[in-house]
């Protein structure tokens, strides 16, 4: 695959494990977990794959500043800031919303990123602001490299194109000729790379892909995924991806007792730390729709440890306050 000839900064430890879990949570029995929460760089997560190619491309192009669109809880932006710091690249992160209570944002700043806010609650304002900032820095003599949110570009998606080969190999090791893969979708770069990689490797007929959109209506993000998958495949020397895939709406899986139970059960039964932004929503969707999927089912855990920590700390603090005893231990 042409992937071998693209610049790459080696950060993660791959392949990540594929783990069988007999009983992850109600509705999630006999499940295979692709553990991209264990990618081996910093706090892990699937975006380590993306950072490897985005950072390498920026270095190849002689950039001195990365301008990234990333929300306060962006795992990708934080990982990028950490990886860039070791290589002498400045990072300017353009965010939206509020800076309060986000561990990922604190990590970005600790790694040396300069963070600016658009003053808007609209996610789209990040992309606009980051492009404008990159243009301004370029006019001032800097060598900026613009990075869209989540690293959802053909270059960034190459990280998951490589993951497709891991998936096929691990299925073969278990003598599984076919499978359905379910994964959470935000910016869409990961699923686009997976679609491209399966097609380029000649395995498009072995895997069905179900993406669970956690932040935007499926019909809004689906065309972006299809376009990115096509451009990624072309970058790798292939044609239009033919893997069967669909995008479903997982936005309803927000905070509540059901989400709390799933988070607790996943942690106790498998050691999986499920974050509320991506994985809890996707797993709740899977629990409700598992019977309609072709078996075996692989759930692709994307990480999100920092967002999970945010939630656990907040829950613990609220439980202590609610108990009325500051010195007492609470069990959320």
From TrEMBL:
Pfam families: PALP. Residues 10-296 form the Tryptophan synthase beta chain-like PALP domain. Its cofactor is pyridoxal 5'-phosphate. Keywords: Pyridoxal phosphate. InterPro entries: ACCD_DCysDesulf, TrpB-like_PALP, TrpB-like_PALP_sf. Belongs to the ACC deaminase/D-cysteine desulfhydrase family. PANTHER family: 1-AMINOCYCLOPROPANE-1-CARBOXYLATE DEAMINASE-RELATED. This is D-cysteine desulfhydrase. It comes from Kribbella orskensis.
């Amino acid at each position: 695959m042409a992937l071998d000839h693209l610049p790459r900064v080696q950060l993660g430890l791959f392949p990540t494990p594929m783990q069988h879990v007999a009983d992850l949570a109600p509705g999630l029995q006999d499940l295979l977990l692709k553990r991209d929460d264990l990618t081996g760089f910093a706090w892990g997560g699937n975006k380590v794959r993306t950072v490897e190619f985005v950072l390498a491309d920026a270095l190849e192009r002689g950039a001195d500043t990365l301008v990234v669109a990333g929300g306060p809880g962006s795992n990708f932006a934080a990982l990028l800031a950490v990886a860039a710091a070791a290589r002498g690249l400045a990072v300017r992160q353009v965010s939206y919303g509020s800076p309060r209570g986000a561990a990922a944002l604190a990590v970005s700043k600790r790694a040396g990123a300069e963070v600016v806010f658009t003053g808007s609650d609209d996610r789209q304002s990040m992309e606009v602001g980051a492009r404008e900032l990159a243009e301004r820095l370029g006019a001032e003599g800097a060598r900026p490299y613009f990075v869209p949110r989540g690293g959802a570009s053909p270059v960034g998606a190459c990280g998951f194109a490589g993951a497709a080969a891991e998936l096929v190999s691990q299925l073969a090791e278990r003598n599984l000729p076919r499978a359905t893969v379910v994964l959470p979708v935000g910016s869409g770069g990961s699923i686009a790379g997976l679609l491209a990689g399966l097609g380029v490797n000649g395995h498009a007929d072995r895997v069905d892909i179900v993406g669970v959109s956690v932040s935007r209506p499926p019909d809004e993000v689906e065309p972006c995924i299809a376009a990115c998958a096509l451009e990624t495949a072309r970058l790798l020397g292939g044609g239009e991806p033919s893997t069967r895939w669909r995008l479903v709406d997982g936005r309803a899986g927000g905070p509540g007792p059901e989400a709390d139970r799933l988070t607790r059960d996943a942690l106790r039964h498998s050691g999986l730390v499920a974050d509320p932004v991506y994985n809890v929503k996707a797993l709740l969707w899977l629990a409700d729709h598992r019977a309609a999927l072709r078996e075996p089912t692989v759930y692709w855990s994307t990480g999100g440890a920092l967002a999970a920590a945010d939630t656990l700390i907040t829950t613990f603090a609220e439980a202590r306050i609610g108990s009325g005893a500051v010195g007492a231990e609470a069990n959320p």
